[in-house]
Design brief:
Blueprint lengths: L20 E10 L2 E11 L4 E5 L6 H9 L6 E6 L2 E2 L10 E5 L10 H12 L4 H11 L15 H13 L5 E5 L7 H18 L2 E6 L2 H7 L2 E6 L2 E6 L1 H6 L4 H6 L4 E11 L2 E6 L2 E6 L3 E2 L4 E6 L5 E4 L8 E12 L3 E7 L5 E7 L12 E6 L5 E4 L16
Length: 388
């Protein structure tokens, strides 16, 4: 199922930003419940890595094991070339930023950021704190108290306080969950900028797909304690390998079909009597019976009778049209009763097609993917807010 790195060879230390993080055959049980199930992956030094998944998938438990707040039931956790599996949290080269910020309300911003340096006996507190406040663009707020700052500013203080101790890995546990939508989007850009500037390894836990795709170089989509698929955001979205990933990372139309042949780089399909084509590289099934998938925004919708050449197509009837400005979202009933979604960009000043109109749906064969039909077509479709 997983596409993560599976090598258990001795890790090699890296130079530059932070260190590689190796999670090797890690399992975590709570009584009879297995929260993390034989997980192996390598997070490269200097990367912005996201663990993405719904509540209960094991992502936060994994982060807590890396931080030392939970101990694995089996397996190893290695940072650079140091096995930290059984080390205390304060002896690991990591720091964690939590959703709650955990700032000291009685200290000003300068002293919040300086706290760790003063405890370690640093001789150059002022210059280091000033440099860190400049990095997070809060130099002019140094003498304010946390309550005098916005939520986004407080989050940047929490990041500065975590980074100033020069961890090799920074762990972010749903760090933007307490912010409103507009501020959350601003902070996504800010956190990515900060990570690019400091160049250390960031590991970010979230249930928010947009948040993960905006910031991360690599995303591991987790489900039931395992990684379903791992890769760059565009790779996961455009070419999902399971129904869970197809539904959790965005929205997909999945239609029952049959794989009828492969010739070179092209595969042929039969969907409810309609012949279709797609790239062989986007077929992720050993079985002939497949779910034929296409994202709603990849589909085009035209009035019935429109000539369609060189594209996959099928007929339907509009059951609902919702105009939302930038696009119109359609529900279309297919001849066998299934409804599919289409997101059509509003490129003209004409109104949307109305309910009851006969239409033809069509799309580029290259945008089609095929998944094993033995998988649940609704897996991952319902996202649960919150975390473990």
């Amino acid at each position: 199922m997983s596409e993560q790195t599976t090598s258990t060879a001795a890790p090699v230390s890296t130079s530059g930003g932070g260190a590689d993080l190796h999670i090797v055959d890690v399992t975590k049980r709570f009584g009879s419940f297995k929260a993390v199930d034989d997980l192996t992956l390598t997070i490269p030094a200097g990367s912005f890595f996201a663990l993405l998944g719904p509540s209960g998938c094991g992502k936060t438990t994994t982060l807590r094991m890396v931080a030392g707040l939970e101990e694995p039931s089996a397996g190893r956790i290695v940072i650079g070339n140091e096995d930290v599996t059984h080390k205390k949290p304060y002896k690991r080269p990591v720091n964690t930023v939590f959703q709650s910020y955990a700032l000291f309300p009685h200290l000003d911003i300068f002293e919040n950021v300086a706290f760790g340096l003063r405890r370690s006996g640093s001789k150059d507190v002022r210059n280091e704190v000033e440099a860190m406040l400049e990095l997070v663009e809060l130099s002019t707020y140094a003498r304010r108290k946390p309550t005098q700052l916005s939520g986004g500013q407080q989050q940047r203080v929490a990041v500065a306080r975590a980074l100033i101790n020069k961890p090799e890995v920074l762990l972010l546990d749903e760090p933007l969950g307490a912010l409103d939508l507009k501020l959350r989007r601003q902070m996504q850009i800010e956190l990515k900028r900060i990570q690019t500037d400091v160049g250390i390894t960031f590991v970010h836990v979230t249930h928010d797909q947009e948040e993960a795709m905006t910031m991360a170089d690599t995303i591991a989509v987790m489900n039931a304690g395992q990684v379903e698929q791992m890769g760059a955001p565009m790779e996961l979205y455009e070419n999902p390998v399971t129904t869970f990933v197809a539904n959790f990372l965005g929205q997909s139309n999945l239609i029952k079909g049959e794989l009828t042949g492969k010739t070179g780089g092209d595969a042929s399909l039969l969907v409810q009597g309609q012949r279709m084509a797609m790239p062989t590289a986007r077929v992720h099934s050993e079985r002939d019976e497949v779910w034929v998938g296409v994202r709603p925004e990849k589909m085009q919708i035209s009035r019935a009778g429109t000539a369609v050449e060189g594209e996959n197509s099928m007929a339907g009837v509009v059951t609902d049209a919702s105009y939302i400005g930038v696009s119109t979202q359609y529900l279309v009933k297919l001849p066998w009763g299934q409804e599919v979604s289409i997101f059509s960009q509003n490129l003209s000043t004409e109104g949307p097609l109305g309910a009851g109109e006969d239409v033809v749906l069509h799309w580029n064969p290259a945008h089609t993917f095929a998944l094993d039909a033995s998988q649940d077509a609704d897996a991952g479709a319902e996202k649960v807010e919150g975390d473990e």
